[in-house]
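User: Predict the structure for this protein chain, please.
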Amino acid sequence: MLLLPLLISLFTKKADQQQYSIHGYAQGTDYSVKYFATDSIVTKASIDSILIKIDSSMSLYKPYSQISQFNRSQTGMRIDDHFAAVMRKSFEVYQKTNGKFDVTVAPLVQAWGFGPKPVTVFPDSAQIKLLLQNVGMDNLSLKGNYLKKKKPAITIDLNGIAQGYSVDVVADYLLKKGIRSFIVEIGGELRVEGPKPDGSVMRIGIEGPAASSIDEPEIRHVLSFSTGAITTSGNYRKYLQRGKGKIAHLINPKTGYPLDNQLISATIFAKDAITADGYDNAVMAMSVEEALAFVASQKGMEAYLIYHRKDGSVADTLTNGFRKMILIK
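Assistant: Here is the predicted structure, written as structure tokens:
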């Protein structure tokens, strides 16, 4: 999914190390890798190779990908290590959020016009009821690298978590290369390792809807942290128009309908990007109070929430840990 972009800034460099920047396009979005090293030991070709391999595993837009093969299968198949790692995390998030995150929403995502195929009409209640019969991660099981489905019609969509995983894979590649100061960002999902070689902090701009217009973005906060990941899920930027109303791209796996609740966006901080990315969508399906309580119950997780008040005005709230990372409001 297209999630909220995060402004990245690196300002200084140490004499014996310099900043290297790599930019490219992958997974339907832009990516950026900025790192400090004595020479350019990581190249664009190496990053592209990693992301192409992940796409070949989990992209719904590639008919030859493993996820596409799995969705066409009758009972399941053996999957690669990338796919298996994302599925293991997906089962964790599914269980901890009582099904608010569910990768089997693929048929609903497609029906509402956010899948790989264009749609001309939106589903009615009868069609949604039918589609819901094939939604639920209890219809899946993973043993080793074999992903099994209970029903042939079960299909999965990993767009809500695979991008965060991709960020982690690139970040881990940099770490293996001995790089200890970097920012990896793919489509707004971001992981930081630092500080900079001179000891100064990394600065991360967090974007949200502007107060003047909910459809327009603005930088809401600037954060600083030494290590960790930030991802954002939101409804204000990616939607379809239906008459005078808007259809959000996040689908409630329980009801089959797009989310229509208090939350406008949820920015999650966690130790790695797959964790932040997996939970930000689930948090969006909660009330503000429920979301804050849930995040508080998760070790090392922090959140920044933008939401509608009952009178329709826009407000925000954040956890104490998130507040401590803010440099500029």
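DSSP finds nine helices and 17 strands in the chain.
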